[in-house]
Structures are given as structure tokens and as C-alpha cells.
Amino acid sequence: MTGLPQTMRAMRITRHGGPEVLEPAEVAVPVPQAGEVLVRVGAVALNNTDLWTREGAYGRPGDPEALSGWRGPLDFPRVQGADVSGRVVAVGAGVDDALLGRRVVVDPAIYDSEGPDARPVGLMGSERDGGYAEFVTAGANRAHDVTDSPLTDDQLATLPTAYGTALGMIERGGLREGETVLVSGASGGVGVALVQIARARGAKVLAISSGPKTDAVREAGAHEVLDRAKDLGEQVRAAAPGGVDVVLDVVAGDLLSDGLPWLREGGRWVVAGALGGYGVAFDVRRLYLHNAQVIGSAMHTPTHFGLLMDLAREAAVQPVIAGTYPLEEAPRAQERLARRDHVGKIVLRP
Q: What pLDDT does residue 1 have?
């Protein structure tokens, strides 16, 4: 790695806790192994998974209150950050030198196989070091060339987790043109992505948000914005008298418990988050008597991510940036993310 520094700035966690456990550190620049590339980070976007990984809030099978990372106990210290855009500055053995200098977006998922429909079983920033640093390594096959995209580094960095999760939900839910879709948490990163992609798919988009954020969610592409502070059932029935075809839900909790009857015959409820709580109860008769489906969706597959990168190259989606911070202000950026008073994505610039 001639010409590159030997050390770099990074923000690491050495234990679970609040924003104060994010600590600056001077660490060795990682060396790309065989089949890997080294990426100079241009931007790294924040996600709820950053908060939950730092807090250890994922729980474990049989012990939902256990401190845990995305898929189990963390190896500390850990550099956080799943969503990286940047440029390839070095390659490992067996990697084509043509990648050097190319602008890339990194697929942060660690998959259970190499197939196109592989499932994520780990995440950069949780199960391996991520992008809260000046450099990060990634598999060459996970570094997608977006050199010609008109999107900025900040915009590109917002795509992997939020838009990847959104596209995975939409694909698994089988959303079709002309269907009516209901999006929860529509002002967040995944929510805005769901609104934009569902609208681009030709769906009628109903979005749940709060009053002050209504205009921004509508600008993202929602046909109607429903106020979560009012009677949602009444609003859904007024906007979709025949019922909803697909619910794309990052809230769960009481929303799923109360809202299952909003689905029309054969409707699909896709869950990719639990902002409203993970304990859910509903009348199972509503599920089987109406051929409804409740579908879990964790991030994306390699196929989904390839489709997302096609959208990025064409700038077919326009990510909304809520704010940018220097790397050392990661604790403050995470505090802002936790307040949920913004629309769009928050980005760090190393």
C-alpha cells in the first residue's frame, strides 16, 4: 500500500452503552486480504442499527433482554458504520487493478452463502469493522462501482442499509404497480426510501408520519400522509376503502396488533423493524381466514443490492440528507438520530 498512511482516525466502541462509549482512536490502516479492496471513506451514513448495536439492544434467542450485537455478542473494540461510499485505493491478491480509483458503494451485509439470494447473517459495523474511519476493507465483490453516478458521496452513503432494507421489503412483499401500500415510520431513513421506491414502482403510497414532517414526506412521493397522532384506522379506511395491499412496517408493536384488519384479502404485512416494540399480539383468524401474510425482512439479498446500485447509477432515487457531521462528532450525530426530529439521513464525513 505504497503512499498510504500507516494509521488512521476511527471512532470505536469498547463496550455497550450510550453515545459516550463512542471514542476516537488512532488505529492501523487495515490491509486488504485476498479478494478484498481498501476503500478511502468519502462518507458514512448513520442507521438505527448503529444505535442498537452500540446499546446492545438486539437481544438473543431465548433472552430478548441480553446485550447483543446484530447477530450475537460483539468483539470489542468495534468500529461502527455500515453505510460507506468512497474510492478504492488498494486491492488485495486476486483483485483486478482496474478497481483502483473507482468510486464505490459497499454492500455491508455478511451473507450465509455466495448465491444471488443469500441471506444476511452479519453486518459491517457489528460483526466486522465498519466505516466510522478513514479507511475500511470490503470484499471486492461487495464494492459496487458507481463512478458515473451523479449522486454525491453523501447521497450514495445513505443507500446500503436504508434503501437496501426498503428494496428488500418491497421485493419480499411482492409490491406491484397499481397496488395500495402503507408505509410506517415514513420520515426516517428507511421510511423515505420506501416512499420513494414504492412511488417509482407505480403504487399508491399512504405514509404514516407526524404533523411537522408531513410536507417533507409528501415531497418524497407519498400520495397521502396519515397523522400518527390521530386515529390511524379511521384515516386508513378513508384513504383505502377497499383495504391495503401491502404494509411496509418498521414500527411493529401496537401498529401490527391493531392494523392487521386493514389488509385486503391476500394482503401482505412486511416487518423490518420494531421501533414500536417487539412484543406483538393479534387475532390469528384475521391472518388465515383472509389469506394474509406477515413477512419478516432483514435487509437485502445480493440480487436486491444489485438492483439498488442500478438505481444509484441512474439517480432514479434522490436520497434526502438531514445533516452532516465530521467523524469526531459521531456521538452528537447519534444523539440527533435518536431524537428522530429529522427527515432523511444523517451522514459523517471522515
A: 67
